[in-house]
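call fold(seq) -> tokens
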Amino acid sequence: MKIYTKTGDAGETGLWGGLRVPKDAARVDAYGTVDECNAAIGVARAALAAAPAGNLDALLAAIQDQLFVVGADLATPDEAAYIPRVDDTAIQQLEQTIDAAEAELEQLRQFILPGGTLAAAQLHLARTICRRAERCVVALARDEEINPQVGIFLNRLSDCLFVLARTANARAGVPDVPWNNPRQQPAP
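ret:
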């Protein structure tokens, strides 16, 4: 099988189930942005390889696997039984990951900027892409029926990526980068 099929040369792509849609359709934009988030997490994992941070790589690998489920869910508008769907279990796993990671972090007392270690910065980038994917899913849901768990999962995932970015910094002994609010009054 060749990697190129030429079926998309006219600006259309196929959804699972065979339906052809324009490549700029809201559904394609949504699962394409999920794929972009997944790729950004892959870059963060590569950065972690240079400075291992405990179980973060395994957690991120599991998240990447689940993002394939999210993409398949979005790419399959019909009720195909052979497609895995996002469910409450996936959302609960993210919540457990967030709770466990937050338990080892200092309480956040101010806004922080994306940065610190390379892995943390990459996780912050993945978080912003995840937020964009969530916005795409919200727009898609206005016009088409989708699994409502997808939007909830992406909302929780962006929170999880934020906490994991902080965890990557903490485990590397690098502080989060505080935002220096120009309107904040200095302490007396």
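The chain is about 60% helix and 5% strand.
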